[in-house]
Every structure is written in C-alpha cells, then in structure tokens.
Amino acid sequence: EAQVTQNPRYLITVTGKKLTVTCSQNMNHEYMSWYRQDPGLGLRQIYYSMNVEVTDKGDVPEGYKVSRKEKRNFPLILESPSPNQTSLYFCASSDPGNTEAFFGQGTRLTVV
Amino acid sequence: AQSVTQPDIHITVSEGASLELRCNYSYGATPYLFWYVQSPGQGLQLLLKYFSGDTLVQGIKGFEAEFKRSQSSFNLRKPSVHWSDAAEYFCAVGARTTDSWGKLQFGAGTQVVVTP
Q1: Contacting residues of A for B34, CB less than 8 Å apart
Q2: CB of A106 within 8 A of CB of B43?
Q3: S-S: B43 plus which of A32, A60, A80, A105, CB 3.0-4.6 Å?
Q4: Rounded-to-integer distance, Cα B95 and Cα A41, Å
Q5: What pLDDT does B100 receive?
Q6: Residue of B47, B91, B103 to mutate for A, most A C-beta atoms under 10 A
Q7: Which residues, other chains included, contact B41 with Cβ-Cβ below 8 Å and sequence gap of 6+?
Q8: pLDDT digits 0-9 by tens, A97-107
Q9: Which residues is A29 bridged to in the sheet?
Q10: Which tens digits make up the pLDDT trace of B103-114?
Q11: A96/B101 Cβ within 8 A
C-alpha cells in the first residue's frame, strides 16, 4: 500500500530537548516536504527536498532542520524546541510533474 | 504575492442539504488546484484536483469543483451532505514551474459541521 509514515503520532516534550520526527514514503517519490498546521493558518511549508541531499527552506523554517540521505526518508529535527513550535506536523511526498501530494497521518507535538 | 483564501472559516449545514465551499487564489499563472479533507484526528485526503481540461472536476465522496479562471476561484460543492462529511476542508494550489512544482500553498481551511 502506498503510504507516507510519520512517527511518532503524538509527542510531548520540554523546551530545549532535541527531538526528531521521522517520515518515510514507499512510493519512490523525489519530492518530500514538511508542513505545520495551526488553527486559522492552514498548512505552511517548513522545509522541502527535491531529491537526495537537496533540501531548501519553505515559508517557516526557523527552528527546524531536515536531512535527506535516502530517497525514502525525510526526518524533521528540532534542535531546541520552544513552545511556539507546538503544532500538528505533516510530512508529504510527490513526484515531478504531478503535484498531488500524499500526506502522512500527522504528528501532534506539544512543547512545554 | 501568492495566496489562497477560503472566506468561510466555519459552515453549518443540515444533513441532506447542499454544500458549497469557496476558494479564491492569487497566483501569477493558472496553478494546479486541489481540495483536501481532514477528518478529526486524521491526515489529509485528496478529494479532487484540477490540472487542465474540463473545468468541472469530479472527485471522491460525491464532491465536485469548478475552476473559474475569470474569478480565480475553485469552489467545492456537494449536492447532498452526509453526517460523515463533517470535517475540515482545505483548498490548495501548486505551482506549475519546475523550480517549485512540489510546493503547495494552502488556504486556512473551512470547518464543516453537519446537523441532523
């Protein structure tokens, strides 16, 4: 089954404690991205990757890092989380010429 | 600047009644257009998409949308809603240019409540 898998689904952490949210897709898609969803703001892109070792900032990259060492994986790293990063995070993947994005189930992050 | 506007934050509709969700976009050229639905606690599911051709697009779950270039709109409709249609709906646009084809710009979402 074609899918994008994120882990964990829920995470509560404390300010400043580094964390990683994993994302994996099994569709051999080149393009992967991370979004955060906040009430009244919809989804905003954090970072994206057009292929292995190619990443770039989206609209709200501050406080986040990503890496793309393998085609299927695109982890999101928060080196020093802060409460304003409390949000619902989605990973997505798609292929060139077909901008239909497939989304993971989401990770609800709470930073206290 | 590129933007997607969903004017209605919240809509309440009776089961069996028709539903129309509005979406307007501001873009340099005609983008790819999408509607996604998010049920409580779930990820985003694609309802339908417009790339080119017929401006009336049919999607899953009985939804359809019409692209109107002159109005920069892509409104979503369903003739008769079911209680299971209660969810949040997002309009999104995607660029056709090769340097940004993967990025989606989302509207703020419309929460749909279905009453008996």
Answers
A1: 100
A2: yes
A3: A105
A4: 20
A5: 60
A6: B103
A7: none
A8: 666 789 999 99
A9: none
A10: 788 999 999 999
A11: yes
